Amino acid sequence: MGVSGSGKSHIGRQVAAAIDATFIDADDHHSADNIAKMARGEPLNDDDRAAWLQTLSHLYRRYRSEGRSLVIGCSALKRHYRDLLRQGAPDLDILYLHGSRRLLLERLDARDDHFFAGAHMLDNQLATLEVPDETEAFHCNIRSTPREIVETFATNLRSS
Q1: For residues 94 and 117, what is the distance between their CA atoms, to the nearest angstrom?
Q2: Residue 73: beta bridge partners?
Q3: pLDDT tens per residue across span 52-79
Q4: Other CB atoms within 10 A of residue 16 CB
Q5: Which of its termini does the chain have fewer beta carbons within 10 Å around, N or C?
Q6: DSSP string, 85-100
């Protein structure tokens, strides 16, 4: 989890490969209305995110019922959102990627193939963010290399 530009998709794919899990990018499950709203530079609100989070929770439940491991790259900005995800995976581990606003904005500005862009949208996510304090949350600064982050997360997941 983390705000846009934190590397959720890039790191998530690598973590999933390291622990033999399937990776799903939560952005692929936003409604067309949510994508259009973000593309216009309008931040999503709790109502916008509700059905999206429910879909992700159902994915966790389905994979667990099939005995498969799943990593979802998802912003999960608020504790309430993470609690909704736990409805599908009660023992959900949170892998929190964080970094400075400057670094996050640099990364966002370098992207041209994503519907989420701009300082305003990032600032809204940073204002919305409730840093995870759950005991099953692992924190990693994005100044570390992707390899270091993946190794740290994979080790933490294997020991949890």
Answers
A1: 24
A2: 25
A3: 999 999 999 999 999 999 999 999 999 9
A4: 20
A5: C
A6: HHTT-TT--EEEEE--
* Residue 51 maps to a domain: yes
Domain ranges, residue 59: 8-159
Question: In Å, how far from its chain's centre is CA 138?
Answer: 13
- With respect to residue 3, please indicate whether it lies within any of the assigned structural domains: no
Distance of alpha carbon 29 from the chain centroid: 12
Q: Is 1 domain-assigned?
A: no
DSSP structural state of residue 123:
H
Give the chain's domain count: 1
pLDDT tens-place string over residues 66-116? 999 999 999 999 999 999 999 999 999 999 999 999 999 988 887 665 455
119: Cα separation from own chain's centroid: 19
Which CATH number belongs to the domain containing residue 144 in this structure? Answer: 3.40.50.300
Strand pairing class (22-25; 70-73): parallel
pTM of the model: 0.89
